[in-house]
């Protein structure tokens, strides 16, 4: 399970600064993609081998009764309800305020673990800060400086400690791909789930009594096992599954994180929206394999189809690693092709890449196009090996690799993707520079 950390606090205490800190570790792994915009309030982070989801609630005001503040408070309430752990941020320089007390009173009733985090604590006397905020009745305050990065690693380790670690990727492989079907409201997710599950026997239906309702539904198609990771609270009613809750961004992102392969459902009758692009960007950030299902293809004419293709090329160009399928969930058209791509994307995400072949492919790429010189140093790529799966991580060793530009990273990604036929999964390339004083300076 990958825990969801929700940040709460009054305006200006440093939530965005902490959010950036907590999600920054992961960003460094993802080459910037043209056209990719990230949602400012939802991100993924990683410490060691552990992934987590971070949500920044804006402007939480538990007493606002109407207007934009009320709407923001409503969204924050939903995030609190869906959190695994809450970080309540206060401002060590401003001291305890009445607004902090209101929020504390609300959080004491949240039924979730709450950590009281005192931000802007650099240079402050620890004992004085602690005494002031202890009065909020949420346990010992944890001093940090989000701006300077002090205390952040300890904070994350403390917060994640109670959550079990994930099962090994390789151990899980024989159960088949874990698939999350995601998309904004009304694109046809429930219809697709029912089409997938309807024809074949559902092997079992478990509802583990975990802190949140993560539901995994094993099923078979064409003799192959899959596990469906539920998103927006699909519940079984009679023979069919239907959504019983409102669309939830957090549940969507949690399902993406729990999955191996994401099926992003789009509605052919609608233009691509920011929400579609944000979900797609999140999939890229988590490194999950991806197949795009352009649903309701039956309901649109040729003109609309052409227009949609242009729209997708413009707004989702950063998904060039993924296959796109035109389907009709309602008429069960295009489903086998879609699942074939799910299988292909899963195989690519889990592929074993041999060190000699990786190194040969890398050398061939360099021979074709050498990395640009930076100052007096020409980066030297020596050898490559695999550093992880789902997504495949390729670790390249060499000298002066710090300054390799993003465009060259993307060239390497494309080269590996073609050589190893890794369609359907994003790739990560990591550089390890040897700091050998005798390293050749050619
Ligand atoms: N001294 C100090 N200032 C900080 C620290 N973290 C954040 N700040 C400053 O505090 C101010 C508010 O930070 P934000 O991260 O925007 O705060 P926020 O809680 O997201 O604010 P809203 O977006 O209004 O909810 C900015 O001027 C930051 O530079 C810190 O650790 N130390
Ligand atoms: N024409 C057409 N309509 C479809 C198709 N798939 C779904 N729909 C219709 O689109 C509407 C929304 O479908 P749902 O499956 O409930 O969509 P959803 O994404 O689960 O929606 P939320 O539960 O709001 O997240 C329903 O009226 C479906 O009948 C399709 O392939 N073609």
From TrEMBL:
The keyword GTP-binding is assigned to this record: yes
Biological process annotations from GO: ribosome biogenesis
Keyword Repeat in record: yes
PROSITE patterns: G_ENGA
The EngA-type G domain, residue ranges: 3-167, 177-350
Membrane-spanning intervals of the chain: none
Recorded GO MF terms: GTP binding; ribosome binding
Binding locations of GTP 2: 183-190, 230-234, 295-298
One Pfam family in the UniProt entry: MMR_HSR1
Entry-linked HAMAP family: GTPase_Der
Quaternary organization: Associates with the 50S ribosomal subunit.
Family according to the record: Belongs to the TRAFAC class TrmE-Era-EngA-EngB-Septin-like GTPase superfamily. EngA (Der) GTPase family.
Role according to the record: GTPase that plays an essential role in the late steps of ribosome biogenesis.
Protein name in UniProt: GTPase Der
The encoding gene: der
